[in-house]
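User: Hi! Is it possible to get a structure for several chains at once, not just one? Here's what I have:
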Amino acid sequence: EVQLVESGGGLVQPGGSLRLSCAASGFTFSSYWMSWVRQAPGKGLEWVATIKQDGNEKYYVDSVKGRFTISRDNAKYSLSLQMDSLRAEDTAVYYCSRGSSWHVEYWGQGTLVTVSS
Amino acid sequence: DVVMTQSPLSLSVSLGQPASISCRSSQSLVYSDGNTYLIWFQQRPGQSPRRLIYKVSDRDSGVPDRFSGSGSGTDFTLKISRVEAEDVGIYYCMQGTHWPPTFGQGTKVEIK
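Assistant: Yes, the chains can be modeled jointly so their relative placement is included. Here is the combined structure:
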């Protein structure tokens, strides 16, 4: 069974940093693109970033480019999202998902990030 | 960015009745490989999204056959042939053809 478990969310001040992690299991992690998608409270879905199987290709939505960094550790079945220079508008539930934009399939339960003073 | 427009934004349906959700894109979603990367997700209250349909009309494993997807180019539809209580939630279309991937606003389905 595919499982994606996010962690690392919490309350952070504007301008601060946070690192999200996603522990994957139930599939061969190194065979799949992985992505982060977020959902502001009571709002719709927004794609954040995507990383290729070997980590050599990374794509970001413009609103986070230069502030967020997606990475992965295939040996540890782990996906990460380093978030710097956080803004109030980054407040959202962040979902780890298996797949690229073409084939996004499984989603984790999400971790809440709140950016507020 | 490609704009995805869903309608209606809210739908109240009697149990056992059909429901239909439209999704229109601001550009063609046909990719250079010939595929159309249009996905439908269901998000039940308090849950994460679940993929129902991919590449316009391919149903995911475990998804009841009362769900079907259709369409082409810029115009797509999700149909529920007979709504059941467990279908309550918000439905999103998403395009994965163009970067960045973008979602529709969501359609809230409730039971009348």
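DSSP finds no helices and eleven strands in chain B. Chain B touches chain A at residues 31, 35, 37, 39, 41, 48-51, 54, 60, 92, 94, 96-97, 99-106 (CB under 8 Å).

User: Great, thank you!
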